[in-house]
Structure formats: C-alpha cells, structure tokens
Amino acid sequence: MGWILFKRALRDLKAGWSRYIALSLLIIFSIFIVTSLMGAAVTVIDYTELRNRELCREDGEFSVFVPLRTEELERITEKGVSVEKMFFADYALNDDQVLRVFKVRENINRISLIDGSLPQSDDEAVIERRYSEVNNIGIGGKVKIGEKEFTVSGIGATPDYNTVIKKVTDSVVDSRYFGLLFVTPKAYDELYSSGCSLSSEEYYYAYLLNGAMTKEELKKILEDIEFDVGDVDDEYFQEYWERMTGRKDDLLEGIDELKDGADELADGAEELSDGIGDFHDGMTDLHDAVPDLTDGIEALDDGAAELEKGIKAYTDGVSSAATGASSLYDGASSLAEGTSELNDGAKLFDSGINEYAKTVGSMLLSEDPYVAAVAAGLADPSNELATGYAQIGAGVAGVDTGAASLRDGAYQLYNGIKTLDKNSSALRSGASALHDGTSELVEGATEFADGIEELFDGSKEIKDGAAELADGARALADGVKEFSDEANDLIDEVFDIKTSNLMLLMDYKENPRIDSAADDVQINYSASIIFGILLVMLFAYVISVFIVHMIDQESSVIGALYSMGVKRRTLTLSYVAVPVIVTFVSGVIGTLIAVLTPAGIPAQLADSLNYFSMPKLEIEVTPSILIYGLVVPPVTAFIVNVLVIRKRLKKTPLALLRNEKKAVRGRELKIRGLKFISMFRIRQMIREMRAGFTVIFGMFMSLLVALMALNTYVYCNKVNDYYVNQTKYEYMYSYKYPTEEVPEGGYEAVAEGFKKEIYGYTFDVTLMGITNDNPFFDTGDLPDNDTDVVLSSAVANKYNLAAGDVFTLQGENGDRLYAFRVARIFDYSASLMVFMDIDRCRDMFGEDDDYFNVVFADHALDIDSGRLYSTVTKSEIERSASVYVDMMAPMVITMSVAASVIFVVVMYLMIKMMIDRSSFNISLMKIFGFKKREVRKMYLDGNFYMVVIGALAVIPLCKAIMDYIYPRYLVSNVGVGISPSYTPEMYVIIFAVVIGLYLVINLVLTNRLRKITPAEVLKNRE
What is the mean predicted confidence (pLDDT) over 349-367? Predict the structure, then answer.
C-alpha cells in the first residue's frame, strides 16, 4: 500500500507540475543565492586563514622615528620575536595616481604571486593585483617613477594590505589611484635617494610574537629604545628638532632670571618688612598722640565758642560806643558852639569892662572932684574887675579852645568807633565760622582718631604680614634655587638628544588593512544563514498549505483508506513525499548551480576580488554548505509538513468520508450597512486567513531582502553625495615636521588620533582642533572648555550619540581614556571627526600656543613634501566616494531581483491556491447568475485590501528591523557614519511597487478565474 500511495504522490506531483515547478524554481533561486553567498564567504574566510599561515602574516606592526640599530633589534629578536623591515615611501605617477614602494619581503607578509615572478633585477618589480587589474598593467608592463622605469615581472598580493588604503583612517579603497609596488632593496634605495618621493620614508616593522611575549611586553621594550638625533639626516627633522630644542636656552635663562628675581624679591620683602616696622613705630607714636590732639581740638572748640561769645559782646559794646560817640560828638559840637559864644560874650564883656575902667580913669582925671572922688572909689574895684575878668576871658578863651578840641576829638572818636562798628560784623561772622570749623574739627578729629586706630591695627597686621612675606620670599628664593638646580637637570634630561623612538604599535586585529575581506564576508555568511533558514521555512510552509488543500480535497479518499486499514503514518509519509522530493531536488539543483557555474560562488567571490587585494582563491565547498543546500530544505519541509499533516489526519474515518469541515470562520460576521458582495469579500478573507498570513509572511521576507538592498543603495549614494558636498576644503596637509608659521592662505588645525570600539570593531576617530574662522567646517562657535566638543554627524550616527551625551575616546596607544560631552552635532559625514577649539586642544595635549600639524586650504600651497605625512585633496575624496556605489551595485540589483521573485511567486501561488480551494463556490456563484466582475470582486479583490493593509504594516516594520540590523551586522566593519534614512517619496515608491506587483499577479489570475466553469459543481457533487 505504501508503494501505491507513493506512486499516487508522484501522479499528484505530475498533475500539479506547474505549481511545483514555480515553487521549485523559487527554492532553486533562493538556495542558489544563499549557497553562493555562503560558499564565497567560506572560501574567503578559509583561504584568508590559509594564506595567512603560508605567507606569515604579521601579528602586528610598529613604526619608529628612525630605523632601529642592530643591537636594538637584537634586544627583541633574542627573546624569540621575529621582526622584518616594512619601510616604504609614496611616489606620484601623475597628478592622480600614487604608488607605495616596498622592498620585496623575505619572511613576514610575503608576496603571494598570482602571475609572474619576483624581481630578479633592479629594474623589475611586482605590482599589487588590484592596481594592475584596474589600470590594465600586466606582466611586462612598464611603470615609471621619476626617472626610473620598472618592468612588471609579477603580480601579487600581501596579507598586510588585504585592503589597499593609503592611511589606516581611510574608509574606501580606490585601486584606480593607489597601489603597491615591490622592488629589490638596491632599487628601493636608489629610488628614494633620487628625492622624488611625495613624503619622507616611513619606518615600519612587522613582527611575529611566536608565543615568546605579549604585545604589551613588546611595547614596553620598544618604549625603552631611544634614538640619537644625530643619526637622522632628514633636513626637515633637523630643522624641527633645532627649533624645539632651541628653547632649552630660553628655559635656562628664564629659570636663572626666576632665581635672580626670587632673590631680589626676598631682599625687597625684607626691606619692605623693615620699612613697615618703622611705619608701624610711627603709627604707634601717632596713635599715642591722637588723644592729646583730640583734647586740644576740643579745647580749641571751647575757646572758639568763648571767643564767639566775647566777639559778640565786643561788637555789641562797639555798637553802643558808636551811639555814645555820636552823642558825645553832638554834645561837644554844642559845647564848642556855646564856648565860642561865651568867648564872644566874654570879649564883649571885657571890652565893656575896659571901657568902664577907662571911664573911671577919665573920671579920676575929672576936674569934678565928686566925680574924681567917686571915680577914686571905683578905680581900684574897676582895675581889679578888669584884671580878674581878663583872667576870666583868658579862661573862657581856653574853654573855647578846649571845647573845639573836644569837638574834634569827639568827631575822630565817632569816626573810629563807626569804622570799628562796621568791622565788628565781619569779626562776628569770622568768630562764628571759626566756632563752626572747630566743631567740625572736633568731629573730624574723632573720625581721625578712629582711622588712626584702624590704621594702627592695620599697620600691626601689615607688619606681621610683611614679616611673613619676608620669610616666605626668602623661602621662595631658597625653593627657586633648589628648583633651578633640579630644573636644569630636568631640562638637560628632556632636551637630551636621545628620546623615545616608538611612534605607533598595533596588532593585526587593530589594522583595517588586514583580514578585512574575511571580516566583510563574515557578515554576509551570518546574514545568508539567517535569511536562508527563514526562506526555507517559508517555502516549507507554502508547500504545507498546498498539502493541506490537497488533503481537504481528498478527504473522502483518505477516509476510505483509513477504513481499509491504512495507517496514519503511511498516509503522512505519502503526503510528505512530494514536498520532500521537491525541496530536495530543488536544493540539489540550486547547490550545483551555485558551486559549478560562474554565476554562483565565483560571481559572489568577484565582489570581494574586485575590492580587496587577495591571492588566488579556489572555491571551497565545505560540509556546512552541502548540509544547507542538500539536507536543510528537505528536512525542514519534512518537519513542517508532518506537523501540519498529522493535525489534519487526526479526524475519524467517518468524518473524513463525509468530508466534514469546521464551521467556516466569518460566517456569523455581520456588519450593518454593507452590501452582500462587500460582506462576502470580508468573510472570504477570514476563511482564507491561513493563506493570507502566508502572503503577508512572504511579503515580510521579500521586503526584508528588498530593504536590505535599498538600505545599501541609500547608504552608498549618501556616501557618494556627502563625501563630495560636505568636503569644502580642496587640500588637507598633514605635517610630520610642522613649520613655525602657517603657510599663507592656509588654516591651521591640530589633529589627534583616537580609537573607539563599537559592535566588536575599533575605528579611528580624529579629534580636530580648529579655529573659529575656519571656513571649511560649519561648526558654529566652538565651546570654550576642554570637555565640550562638537560632533560630526558621522560620529553621532556611527556611535548613536546625541547632544548632551558623554562619551570616551581611547588614545592611540591605548593607555588613556578621554571623556567628552557632546555640545552639539553638525552635518558632516565625510569623516569620523570630533571638533574643539584649537587653543583648548593645544592645552589638552600640552602643545605650544602656535602649534599645528594640519593645514586646510582652498588651493594648493607651496609646502615641501618632506615635511608632510600626507596630502588629501578633494578630487581624491570625490573619486573614492563613487567606489561604494560601483562596488555594491551588483549586490543591490541581485537582492532586489531576489526580493521581487520571492514576493511574486509566493503571492501567485497562495492566491492561485485560494482560487482553487474556492473553485466549487465560484462555480456555484456563476450558476446563481453572478457576473464575472462580481465574482472577481468576491474572490480576488478582497486580496487587494489584504495586500494594502499588509504592506502598510510590513514596510515600516521591515524598515525598523533593517535599521537595527544594518549598522550592527551589515556595515559594522565600515568606518563610515551614515544614516540610511528614507525620504517620504521612497516609502511611497516601495508601496507602489508592492501594489504594482500585486496588480500584475491579479491580472494573471483573472484568467484563471474565468476558466472555472459551472461544471465544477458536477465534478464535486457528493
């Protein structure tokens, strides 16, 4: 019975050949793609490991300032470490192309010849494989460097330049413009001595640890090795070194001046202390005299008050005296007038008396005796009267004269007192002002006393401080003397002509040039396994849907077989046979195509061979590839189908004979307001939910692949666009021996190299100190501190940083971490750079205020090549930026086609199966008189809404998943920070493509719908 059922399964396979052929082609295509990716990845990974052993790939490399001496090398090699020189110099073939010239290696990083032979003479050379291919230089070709022409004797590759990039910080390979050339030692020396190199020779050594020591132990030995400046014959180095060491005398003179100044300071401090002591003594005397001064001033104020009172009394007396003098003068004047009149009367009276005396005398002489007698009696009295009155007259005259004098004196007195009265007002005002002044003087004296008190206290403190200052200055002088002695020794040590020779040390894991092809395809390998398993599960599930449909159609037959005693296991195996056969055959065919045809593994290897410099590779088919291609598909199909089929075959024979089915989902669904066709369409979608889920899952898988391709396309195009548009400088010069002055037309910068790890890969990040007027980087005002930095968007995207975040960078030697805070982010994706103010950068790394090691310019500058490490031009960046697009275009196309095929086939098969499952009902609808357009609406158009809703949900879901996966697993080994975000228009295009593909499938299946006739009812009648 088992054989009969198996032959029946083969007949079913033959009957449904179109369906299985379509599914088989899809499986073949998927297995082919996945196996090709896996095979190419395994080949690259395994052969990289194999060639590394054969060619003695280095464990690491280090560079030094000057070549190591023989005895210095012996210090390393005698411990069991192998070391070989890897010196090189760069030469320009023309304005664009540069060749890096090495001597032919002997023991480490040996050349793997792909064609030809090693140079046998000094005019022969081996050229690197990728450069020869891109520039069409074969065996016998000519390469001219300066005046020296070499004939290509061989084409090869070396393990230390698996990725041929000029600097380890470069992120893109462009073999059109940069390659390697290997010549004999003599030819190398002659070429370098010709002076036509672009820069000075680089002294690199490759090493093999051989288990003798660790990298850290080797580093310690190298750090202890010093070099003698006298051994360096590079004129630019000597000039730079003389400029640096020329500061020794300045430092020594400065220290001597510091010492003398400290001594003078100590002497001056002591003199200052003595002077301040004298000042304090004077302040003490002044402080003691202040009480007497204040008492005297208070007494003076009291005297001034009394004086003011006395002056007031005086002026009042003067005023009264002036009044009395005026009255006196008036009285004296009246007295003078009276005395004058008295004198005049006295004179008249005297004249009368004289006349009386004369009359008496005449009477005496009278002849009349009576008269004479009478006269005789009157003569004596009259004479006495005349004599007495004469005296009275004289007195009256004296009184008159005295009265006149009294009047004149009174007048003078009056005038004097009047004048005094006038001056007494000023005297009174002066006395009042004097009193006011003495009152203020008293207040001032009080404040003066307080000030003197404070000054006295301050002078005491100053005296103490001056004493301490003198002691401190003397101690400083003694300390400076000791410092001078030690500093002189230190300066002699620092400026000794011997110094550390090690410049750079990194192992092969840190070197982006080594094993990068294997790292790149490792991501492809992991992704291909994951997607391959998901695709196989999808196809197995699709087949299981077909099988379930077949079981439902043959339910009565299965019931009859059960009744005849056929076991469930036998039936299960008979239904599983078809999917297992289909998947196995498809897996075999897909695997054979991938392994044996040029379109398979060789085509995928071409992606690596066209980018990385690799030796000859032979396709390697590992057991894991065969297991995936030959075993995984049928086993997965077997497991999935057994699980699904066993559930269907658990029904009783009677239920199977009657073809009993569960109640149709959605039958009870009723929505008011909907017409019959719309309601029927919704119920049909619910009934076919299983197939609808398969369509959505297929859409999900295909969109994941499609968005991976689209992410890659967007990523590469943004690299091409941003690198060109955001690089605003034309030239970037990196100095090995900086000059004192910045070349005219250039903008100086300080560049320091750091490392930062993410997702298991370590990348070089450049801390760039620039000036605020640098026109090539639109960073805005740079933070004025040592911790805040401005991030390029490349670093922000690569390391998922935002403004305000704190992050760390590791020094190139790995011995120190630097923490920074993101001040802001500016749009610059051309390089992993962090920006800070140039002065802050100089301070951080202990450089001079005028130090720089990078110059940016918008035109070529006249700089001697011997001073430079490298020169980067915008034209080089533009050329290298397009490499990503060219390199990834085939993969983008392949993945886009694969996604479209998966989506179309899965959708076609599922919708066709839905139609086949409903053929009986469709036939009935046609019998009931429904038109073709109405039937299409009920059974086909409902899928449109399912696809629309599914696309609206799946597209953003797939984008979110891909945005998480892409930077972590697909470009985690690429030193580029680009966000593969989509524009709204791109989402619209993706949605339109999905709907367009559905409409094409819908159009094809409309013909299938038309072929269902009412006769289907008769064929399926009970």
Answer: 73
Rounded to whole angstroms, how far apart are CA atoms 699 and 1017? 34
Q: Does residue 744 register a pLDDT over 60?
A: yes
SS (H, E, C) 208-275: ECCCCCCHHHHHHHHHHCEEEHHHCCCHHHHHHHHHHHCHHHHHHHHHHHHHHHHHHHHHHHHHHHHH
What one-letter code names the amino acid at 855? V
Q: Is 897 exposed, middle or buried (0-12, 13-18, 19+ CB in 10 A)?
A: middle
Q: What is the pTM of this model?
A: 0.63
Spatial CA neighbour of 640 closest among 700, 554, 579: 579
Q: Give the number of C-alpha atoms closer than 13 A to the C-alpha of residue 367, restricted to the C-beta side.
A: 0
- Report DSSP state, residue 104: P
- Residue whose token pair is 């990196």: 734
Res 676: pLDDT? 62
pLDDT at residue 736 above 70? yes
Better-predicted residue by pLDDT, 206 or 763:
206
Q: What b/e sequence results for 502-536 when a residue is b if at least 16 CB atoms lie within 10 Å of its CB, and e otherwise?
A: beebbbbebbbbbbbbbbbbbbbbebbbebbebbb
Q: What is the pLDDT of residues 927-942, one digit of tens each?
A: 666 676 666 666 666 6
Proportion of the chain in helix, strand, coil states, percent, rounded to 5: 65, 15, 25
Residue 203, strand partner residues? 64
Asked if 31 and 587 count as a contact pair (C-beta separation under 8 A), the reply is yes
**Beta partners for 872?**
732
Distances in Å between the alpha carbon of 612 and those of 137, 306, 578, 696?
Answer: 17, 116, 44, 39
Taking a C-beta distance cutoff of 8 angstroms, is the pair 132, 138 a contact? yes
DSSP state of 967: I
Q: Residues near 8 by Cβ (< 8 Å), separated by ≥ 6? A: 574
The per-residue pLDDT for range 827-882, each reduced to its tens digit, is 998 888 999 999 999 888 888 888 899 999 999 998 887 788 778 888 878 877 77
Distance CA 316, CA 431 (A): 14
Q: For 682-722, what is the HEC assignment? A: HHHHHHCHHHHHHHHHHHHHHHHHHHHHHHHHHHHHHHHHH
Residues 6+ apart with CB under 8 A from 155: 113, 114, 115, 116, 126, 127, 128, 129, 132, 138, 139
